[in-house]
Specification:
The chain has about 500 residues and is an alpha+beta fold. Helix content is about 35%, strand content about 20%. The strands form 5 sheets. A 7-stranded mixed sheet has the order 5-4-14-15-16-13-17. A 6-stranded mixed sheet has the order 7-2-1-11-20-19. It binds flavin-adenine dinucleotide (FAD).
């Protein structure tokens, strides 16, 4: 028998997480449930989080978003990957490009034939088999041409860079137009049911004005503070700083550079790294660092000395702790966004984690019964997503050969999760990479980082020897040549934007 449906959903917080959740629920629930966002202008939003991964397109389809309108409204640009500078060794440079690498033709994957040619000294750099990497080098962009069969143009996968405050505003406009009610005010505390089957469930949040906002389901999008999930329900936090020791960031926008690059750059420094996110009207920059190894002043000086243009504000400090809440869903509270945990933005995964939590919420949407089995599965899935991304981010730190600072030496020698060790061991023996279940990063992502940071397999797959060396060479050469020709005809990134989605912030 169906338990009675929920009536009122209260979303606490109006940052990226709050408004993404509100718009998605308003779209999917089609006005059958009351959706209310409570946010405080005085507290504001974290205001960073400007680079995404291609999975965001699924979310955009879910909320029926028009790509060009969205990029115009958020001064956005296109992103084809992330360039990593100084990660393996000082002076190294590689890219984690989105989409496919090469083309599968024979029994084992393309990468194994590439390893084989590398071993005989005939291979070209990996990037030459990736259309997104080659397009990034040339500052070109176009979306995938799914209508052209057997062309690398089909393989273009893209994401976006956008202005975080404009994104929250844009989503708010969509949400309100789809029936979401917004309440401005600072929440002082939450009240919980005293008795009954659902004793301990949150039943209302109380504002400074004294107003009570009641609900059946509460989505905690209140940011790092975790107003409901932690301050009210004391769910607990699992700290991962033994593997990801950075704990602070400084963010600063600067003037644009002459060339509009279609990728994020992550440059490793002495005790952390710096992001560079090109938007239409400015470049977003930030230095993520470990406060045990570098002072705030030094971190600010490093950041400011690596900008492309004049800074447009003073560096803004942000403190964080890496890890996740022990439970993302506790009683009738679901934490989404920074309230659920934090992994540093090295692979631009936080907005993706918001999106995947929203999809899980839709999959396990509760009624008033709040089924324990559903909640447990939701929590297992959240942990799985967080842990698999955590391992991928740790890989970047651990797999370094730098000897110029204690920070990098510590990272190279630290113990790592067994799940990551297994992945590295598997690759080291025969270059094999196995994607576990539906973990976010595919074989192509892992390969690019492991190869880019100088991990080499001892051997390749034995079955890659079944083709002759000449046939293998010709096969790879044809892929490389076609990619180069395709990149030649692609439009320039800045031109593409000017034609389709020039900035028009609201
Ligand atoms: C340094 C840094 C860089 C990042 N870069 C990226 C990136 O490149 N890509 C990416 O995907 N992610 C990135 N992230 C993560 C990304 O910024 C967040 O996932 C995203 O902004 C979501 O934040 P949020 O909505 O959870 O929290 P917030 O933006 O902090 O929003 C919290 C909301 O809760 C409200 N609130 C809080 N307390 C109260 C109260 N008492 N009463 C009423 N309202 C309240 C606030 O007003 C606000 O509206 C980055 C994060 C950091 C720290």
């Amino acid at each position: 028998m169906q338990a009675s449906p929920l009536q009122n959903i209260v979303i606490v917080g109006g940052g990226t997480a709050g408004w993404m959740t509100a718009v998605a629920l308003a779209t999917v629930l089609k006005g059958r449930y009351g959706i209310r966002v409570v946010e405080s202008d005085e507290i504001g939003i974290v205001g960073v989080g400007e680079a995404t991964i291609p999975m965001i397109q699924r979310f955009n389809r879910l909320i029926e978003l028009d790509e060009n309108e969205f990029l115009s409204a958020t001064c956005g640009t296109f992103k084809l990957g992330i360039e990593f500078v100084n990660w393996g060794r000082m002076g190294d440079r590689y890219m984690h490009g989105f989409g496919r690498l090469g083309r599968d033709l024979w029994p084992v994957g393309f990468d194994q034939y590439w390893h084989r040619l590398q071993a005989t000294g005939q291979g070209h750099p990996l990037e030459q088999y990736s259309i997104t990497r080659m397009a990034s080098r040339a500052n070109k962009f176009m979306p995938a041409r799914t209508d052209i069969e057997n062309s690398p143009l089909q393989d273009i996968a893209h994401a976006y860079h956008f202005d975080a405050s404009l994104y929250a505003k844009y989503l708010r406009r969509l949400g309100e137009a789809r029936g979401v009610r917004r309440t401005e005010g600072k929440i002082t505390h939450a009240t919980q049911r005293a008795e009954g089957r659902h004793a301990g469930h949150v039943d209302a949040v109380v504002l400074e004005s004294g107003e009570r906002v009641e609900g059946d389901l509460f989505i905690d999008c209140s940011g790092f503070r975790g107003l409901l999930i932690e301050q009210t329900l004391q769910t607990g936090f699992e700290d991962w700083s033994q593997w990801l020791p950075c704990d602070r960031a400084l963010a600063v926008p600067c003037e644009s550079a002459p060339v509009l690059t279609p990728y994020t750059r992550a440059t490793a420094h002495r005790a952390g790294w710096q992001w560079r996110i090109p938007l239409q009207h400015r470049i977003g920059n930030g230095h993520v660092y470990c406060s045990r190894h570098i002072s705030d002043d030094e971190a600010a000086a490093t950041l400011l000395s690596h900008l492309d243009g004049k800074p447009l504000a003073d560096p803004r400090p942000i403190r964080f702790r890496t890890g996740m809440r022990r439970l993302a869903w506790n009683r009738n509270v679901i934490a989404i966004g920074l309230a659920s945990g934090f992994l540093e933005p090295l692979e631009s995964t936080s907005i993706h984690l918001i999106q995947s939590a929203i999809q899980q919420l839709i999959d396990f949407f509760p009624d008033r019964g709040f089924n324990e089995a559903d909640i447990a599965q939701f929590n297992r899935d959240s942990r799985f997503h967080y842990e698999r991304i955590r391992d991928f981010v740790i890989l970047h730190y651990h797999l370094n050969q730098r000897d110029d600072s204690e920070f990098w030496r510590d990272c190279a020698h630290m113990g790592i999760p067994q799940t990551l060790q297994d992945k590295m061991d598997l690759f080291r023996s025969h270059g094999r990479i196995v994607r576990v279940d539906n973990e976010l990063f595919s074989e192509v992502g892992w390969l690019q980082v492991m190869e880019g940071q100088n991990l080499r397999p001892q051997r390749h797959h034995p079955l890659a020897e079944l083709q002759s060396e000449q046939a293998t060479f010709d096969y790879l050469e044809s892929i490389r040549t076609v990619i180069a020709k395709c990149v030649d005809v692609m439009p320039d990134h800045a031109q593409y934007i000017a034609q389709h989605c020039a900035a028009r912030p609201m």
